[in-house]
From TrEMBL:
The chain crosses the membrane at residues 7-27, 65-89, 101-122, 134-153, 182-203, 237-258. Its main location: membrane. PANTHER family: INNER MEMBRANE ABC TRANSPORTER PERMEASE PROTEIN YCJP (PTHR32243:SF18), MALTOSE TRANSPORT SYSTEM PERMEASE-RELATED (PTHR32243). It comes from the Bacteria. Residues 66-258 form the ABC transmembrane type-1 domain. This is Carbohydrate ABC transporter permease. It is found in: Cell membrane. It is a multi-pass membrane protein. Belongs to the binding-protein-dependent transport system permease family. CDD domains: TM_PBP2 (cd06261). SUPFAM superfamilies: MetI-like.
Amino acid sequence: MLRKIAFNLFAWSIVLMVAFPLFWMLVTSVKPQFELFRRPPTILPETWTFEHYWKLLSDTNFLGYFWNSVILSTTTTFVVVAIATLGAYSLVRFRYRGRESLAFLVLFTYLLPSVVLILPLYLMLVQLGLSNTITSLVIAYTTFALPYALWLLRSFMAGIPEDLESAALVDGASRLGAFWDIILPQLLPGIISTALFTFILSWNEYLYALVLVNSDDARPLTTGVMNMLISSFNIEWSLLMAASVMMSVPLIIVFAFLQSYLTRGFGAGGVKG
């Protein structure tokens, strides 16, 4: 009994430690400016205000950055999931020389630090005339999201019995028809967890966006908010906290509905295909 109580106290302590910065971010975003630096600081604001949210939406380009992030993350997710699904199907269902070597080579690219790929990607995108565009970020984000997505879906694909597809082929279905009617419905949990992982990764990415995009029209939220609210001489803490809360809302909503698929996906990533 005492061991269970101690374990519960320890678990809740960890939860509170993780949740407190999020709570402080939310509380700070609704505090008046004069309360931010009061000593000693108060946990809850004496006066609640939403002026920071209104100012962020009306006086800044936050909505433009938000729309850029939505387009960027959604497009990257569709591209990565489509390529990874077909790639995983090839690696699991077809037999050809170098198949396993190719799979491990893809995984190796995921292990490379992101900073290693920035210069080659930047030079390639400049040559293609795609620098300072959302398209350039979609290409860049695909390079680091695709390898993990491919391995994740490969594990899911390996868990689908090949007999189901073989039976469909015997009954007269084409390879594409069997893939569409048999494989995709079975693979749906893996596709959802992969899409969620890719969306979160794209939404939060900072380094590539900072290096590859200097145009204000194409900046996502991560670099747009930093450029807008943080300077060498001043940090707009109230607006920064309000922006952070609003940046977190889409992820919280998506994660709340799809968290079971994400957990299942992490588990499948550890299964040998």
